[in-house]
Amino acid sequence: xxxxxxxxxxxIEPEIIAMRAAxxxxxxxAEHFGLKLxxxxxxxxxxxxxxxxxxxxxxxxPKGRPRKDAMGLLTKSLIEKANRFFLLVCCYLL
Length: 94
Prior knowledge:
Elements: H1 13-21, H2 26-33, H3 37-55, H4 70-93
């Protein structure tokens, strides 16, 4: 394969794991996928760290600020609607 500058390594993760289980070297894996040796080394380090956390019972979560997603906005709008409904019911009962 020709050298790539960037790839979503998560897409080829199962293949990398299989190659490592077969005893391939990081250099051989990098050449097979057209990646740099450093990319494979860093991925292996991250993968091992993640597996160690899972084995210790720690759930790995994404780092950084959580994304603003549709569910968060949906939850906010439902809370606002519930508050309005509660106010209407209270006003009606009085």
